[in-house]
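Each letter names a residue; the fold follows as tokens. Both lines appear below:
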Amino acid sequence: MSDLSAIDRGREAGFGDYVQLLKPRVMSLVVFTAMVGLIVAPVPVHPFVAFTAILFIALGGGASGALNMWYDADIDRVMRRTASRPIPSGRVGAGEALGLGLALSGISCVMLGLAANWFAGAFLAFTIFFYVVVYTIWLKRTTPQNIVIGGAAGAFPPMIGWAVATGGVSLESLLMFALIFMWTPPHFWALALFMKDDYSNAGVPMLTVTHGRAATRRHILAYTILLAPFALALALSSIGGPVVLATALVLNTLFVLGALRIARRDEAAAGADRYKAERAFFRFSLVYLFLHFAALLVERSLMTFGLGGW
């Protein structure tokens, strides 16, 4: 892989450029789902331990983002959505991103192990490895199933949060994992439908590139339908309850209806609103995941007063 640090930077990197390397929007999802996993676990955690654990999980998520940007700098340069990132734009050198990513990886995993337990620290290390090596380096450029298998990396954080509290894995943490894992493909394929040229130009074998938009629409519908049972199973688990069940029923009904609209779309449609349904589905997918995990928090709060849960 060529070293892009020799690119003419145009201006010196600022603090915001290094923050951008850590993919703060992705990190926010990591932090939120990990926090939910920690809070809904049946073992109470001291507030200071909980705070430090979430901090180091966030740093681990940021480390993954920096290493991803380091390796993907070549394809980021040719994609409109990513061309302005710190490395392809020349503001940060590839070597700097690699060093930052490796340093944060080591610090976050070791400190999480010391602050919470070594199982959680090792789990975070495995998650970083999976995202960087398995997804970014291997799957992303070799198979249209990249986002299906690679999506596991984004589904691990609530399991890490649960492991911080319990030191292990349980059915409940696996169901939280399954919810994000099954949500990831329709979420990203909706994005790929209106960003198809980006992936094609970069040589990334996204499903839209290898199988076309019609097949991608059918896959979105299939995965959205398969997602619903996992959401309902989580609602019926020991960390679920009436609030989570009601949330799951409403959100999954709307999600399936959105996927049906995409599946029935006329490929010949043109005009400024050509991808209106896809964009709406993508935006709703973000709300979908947030509200599911927010409902778990509400249910846990009600349980403390003897009102929630089954």
